[in-house]
Amino acid sequence: MKITVVGGGYVGLVSGACFAHLGHEVLIVEKLKEKLELLKEGKSPIYEPGLDELLEEGIKGKRLHFTDSLKEAADFSEVLFICVGTPSLADGSPDLSQVDQVVRDVARRMNSYKVFVEKSTVPVNTHKRIEGVVRRYLKDKSLEFDVVSNPEFLKEGAAVDDFLNPDRIVVGVSSQRAKEIMEEIYRPLVEKGAPLFITDPASAEIIKHAANAFLATKISFINMVSDLCEATGANVDAVADGLGFDKRIGRAFLNAGIGWGGSCFPKDLKAFVKIAEEFAVDFSLLKEVERINERRIELLMKKLKDALWTLRSKRIALWGLSFKPNTDDIREAPSIKVVQRLLKEGATVSAYDPKATDNFRRLFVEGEDLRYAKDKYEALKDAEALLILTEWQEFKEADLTKVKELMEVPIIVDGRNIYDPDEVKAMGFEYYSIGR
Ligand code: UDX
After folding, report:
1. Ligand 1 pocket check: which of 209, 219, 335 to mutate, most ligand atoms within 8 Å of Cβ?
2. Ligand 1: does its nearest atom lie under 6 Å from the Cβ of 243?
3. How does residue 374 score in pLDDT terms, banded at 50, 70 and 90?
4. What is the mean pLDDT of residues 2-15?
5. Which CATH number is 21's domain given?
């Protein structure tokens, strides 16, 4: 089938490239000139394992095209995936203006049946809003159209794999015609065994928010438990392992640490709480989930101060700037608040990240008090403490003997529990971690 994808960001680019890989012909609309140029050269503006290969394959196979013209997009296919950004507004509700803009522009040009597919994360009942906008801007009011919810469940750093090997595909439809089109689009994955869960649009919209809210709740739960483990000398990783054997609980997303960040959990939780409030439903549990998460930074800074007494003019090495491993994304990364606090307290920071430094540098320029090291060992020179904020594999595999030699004072504050406490303490490190 022919598919139009509007928005060439994390979701649109991965979805478009994967649809092309499944054999569809895809047109991706990207309005930012510099991004569009990169894409046309087959270069991905984002770091996502496996994406470059899919872009090259799609472009070579003439199944993947790029444009900045919404007119071209509106005419290219009868299915239009909306993959534009829905960032948080100040009050926590999502900014849906880009969704509104796309729908208006396409509706004005429509001259045949079209399916508008919500792939961006939107609050429940947004499909009704989109129906209203299409009706208002359609020139030929007799034209038929459908609005479908098809939320993404792509983890950054694993998005291509998550798309091609999904736990489930969720589709919210309200017509047989739209249902058949979505079945056709996802047939290659369904034939490989991916469950296709068909429901109504409102339920599909809620499934997305509820999934992220539950995952964030699971993480805040184990982080809350880690506080008790720390106070009682228990080991939160052992507790998580013990919990994980229960199939109803599962081990995944029970890693205690400095909490969740990224472009989804923070935004989606705020949006879910906000939309519930609009329906006079009080999501107090999720407000507590957010509070527990925010407290992680305080707890980490307290550990560092307990170890170093004062931070002024202390040399702190920082490993990990991205919000999680295998991505260059720093949105809502714990590193942002931690670096702000360290600089405010007068520490001198030497930071390293395998992929995210360039993005981070746009927020914090280098200066007397902040340097970016070219590798993890250079960051350690004369450091009086090492702060680990992201569990990149290369940090787990670091040569700790070399680490100890390079540092002036062998203190490690491990925000992601990547080392074994007994091992590093036996090597002479003063070691602090979470809940252990
Ligand atoms: C998430 C959802 O997983 C994905 O399904 C959705 O489509 C988008 O949002 P993402 O935000 O990319 O994906 O990353 P994820 O791997 O879910 O991690 C989210 C945050 O939770 C990260 O900050 C990570 O460090 C943190 N995390 C994750 C924990 O602190 N502990 C864990 O056990 C797992």
Report:
1. 219
2. no
3. very high
4. 96
5. 3.40.50.720
Q: Which of 109, 55, 105 is nearest to 84 (CA)?
A: 105
Which of the residues 18, 83, 229, 264 is marked catalytic?
264
If asked whether residues 207 and 120 sit together in one domain, one would say no
276 and 286 in a single domain? The answer is yes
Q: What is the pTM of this model?
A: 0.96
Q: List the beta bridge partners of residue 2.
A: 25
Select from 198, 231, 253 the last residue of a domain: 198
- 211-234 pLDDT per residue, tens: 999 999 999 999 999 999 999 999
- Whether 264 is a known active-site residue: answer yes
Q: Which two tokens stand for residue 144?
A: 């038929």
Partner residues linked to 67 by β-bridges: 29
Q: How far apart are CA 324 and CA 318, in angstroms?
A: 14
Contacts of residue 239, defined as CB under 8 A and 6 or more positions apart, other chains included, come to 222, 225, 229, 435
Classify 118 as helix, strand or coil.
strand
Q: Are residues 143 and 112 in the same domain?
A: yes
pLDDT at 29 over 90: yes
In ligand 1, the atom with minimum distance to the C-alpha of 159 is 12
Tens-digit pLDDT profile for residues 86-102: 999 999 999 999 999 99
Ligand 1 near 262 CB (within 6 A): yes
Which atom of ligand 1 lies nearest, measured to the CA of 154?
A: 7
DSSP state of 91: T
